[in-house]
Backbone:
């Protein structure tokens, strides 16, 4: 009897992670299912969905006849994801908790728990993503210490694991995995990498996993679920009322409960206004939220942005970028938005400027700029600075033209 590899599969109680565990078991691995509890409260209807999800995950493990564990990261989630989320909202930014949750919880604490506490040879998740290594390569990986300098020694010979889009391009989840560490990526298997969502559902039905098939797709904030966002955030942050101000003429249109309850591009609910107004900018010093009277208003469109230090999944920036400081690739900042061609410029501090081939609607500080080269997801960086909007540029051009015309006007002759 040969040596059987031990794989720990993260189980959420949903169809994807359930089928991931099933496929690993069918391939002869020794599989352990683990449910992570990361949030500790009832939803708005007073129902604790975590308990139901945990029960569903346990039932799947019983059907598959694999061991089941439950682990709590409530404290870690609070300190490393949720506190960060609140700080970002207070700064006027809109964070992405799902990307942060994968970075800090699933592919950090859970990864260490799987490998070091449960003694697994690898971990697995139900994400739709692919890597550059075969499963057998995963088991050969050893821990690599992160670099102590900004970039690694260029003479160090390495063979980093790369991440590629999953076969189901609609479900592809590389966007949400764009901040995970190379160390975790090297030791992770994605059993659904070559499958479509439809085929995954078919496998679940044939295996009798009907209780997870009936569940609807989770779409809310990672581990917080679907709830009314303004009510939820006001449980944690003091209301800071301010004005809705027209970007066009400075008219006060109405009031809001706090800039952190609003994000760029969303429709502003302004009492007494018949027409739709959209959030285009925020001033956290005054509490003013600037609004425009159309969903495609030029104040919502920009084509340049800067990130904080960019997280490259392979640790180092691509050789082309390191060599010339510039690179052509593709950009998105919302999962499933169409990819936009862009030019990336690398800064000395590891941050990047991204110049888009066309202006994009509602670029939002705090969200992650995720870069792709072909099918490869290169990594991501948090957007911290935006270039001027098309509206600002338009106004600037109008002022220049007006100034030039003013200069050209002949000065009247003084009366003799």
Residues:
């Amino acid at each position: 009897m040969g040596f059987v590899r031990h794989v720990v599969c993260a189980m959420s109680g949903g169809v994807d992670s359930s089928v991931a565990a099933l496929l690993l078991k069918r391939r002869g691995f020794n599989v352990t299912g683990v449910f992570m509890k990361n949030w500790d409260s009832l939803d708005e209807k007073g129902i604790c969905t975590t308990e139901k999800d945990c029960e569903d995950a346990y039932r799947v493990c019983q059907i598959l006849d694999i061991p089941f564990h439950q682990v709590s990261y409530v404290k870690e989630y609070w300190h490393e994801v949720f506190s960060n989320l609140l700080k970002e909202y207070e700064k006027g930014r809109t964070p992405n908790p799902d990307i942060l949750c994968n970075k800090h919880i699933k592919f950090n604490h859970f990864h260490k728990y799987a490998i070091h506490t449960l003694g697994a040879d690898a971990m697995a998740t139900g994400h739709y993503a692919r890597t550059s290594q075969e499963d057998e390569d995963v088991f050969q990986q050893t821990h690599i210490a992160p670099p102590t300098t900004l970039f690694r020694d260029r003479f160090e010979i390495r063979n980093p694991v790369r991440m590629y889009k999953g076969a189901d391009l609609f479900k592809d989840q590389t966007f949400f995995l764009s901040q995970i560490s190379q160390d975790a990526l090297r030791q992770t298997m994605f059993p659904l990498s070559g499958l479509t969502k439809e085929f995954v559902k078919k496998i679940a039905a044939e295996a009798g996993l009907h209780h997870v098939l009936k569940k609807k797709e989770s779409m809310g904030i990672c581990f917080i679920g679907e709830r009314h966002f303004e009510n939820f955030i006001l449980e944690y942050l003091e209301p800071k009322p301010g004005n809705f101000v027209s970007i066009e003429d400075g008219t006060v249109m109405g009031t809001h409960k706090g800039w952190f309850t609003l994000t760029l591009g969303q429709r502003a609910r302004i009492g007494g206004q018949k027409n739709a107004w959209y959030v285009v900018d925020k001033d956290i010093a005054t509490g003013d939220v600037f609004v425009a009277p159309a969903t495609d208003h030029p104040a919502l469109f920009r084509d340049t942005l800067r990130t904080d230090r960019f997280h490259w999944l392979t640790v180092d920036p691509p050789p082309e970028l390191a060599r010339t400081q510039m690179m052509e690739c593709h950009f998105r900042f919302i999962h499933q938005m169409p990819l936009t061609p862009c030019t990336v410029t690398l800064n000395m501090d590891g941050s990047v400027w991204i110049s888009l081939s066309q202006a994009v609607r509602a670029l939002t500080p705090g969200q992650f700029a995720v870069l792709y080269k072909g099918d490869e997801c290169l990594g991501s960086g948090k957007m911290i600075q935006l270039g001027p909007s098309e509206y600002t540029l338009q106004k600037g051009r109008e002022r220049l033209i007006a100034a030039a015309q003013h200069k050209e006007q002949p000065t009247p002759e003084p009366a003799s």
Remarks:
- The chain has three domains: 6-136+159-214, 238-295, 300-392.
- The chain has eleven helices and 19 strands.
- Residues 167 and 195 are 6 Å apart (CA to CA).
- The first strand starts at residue 6 and ends at 11.
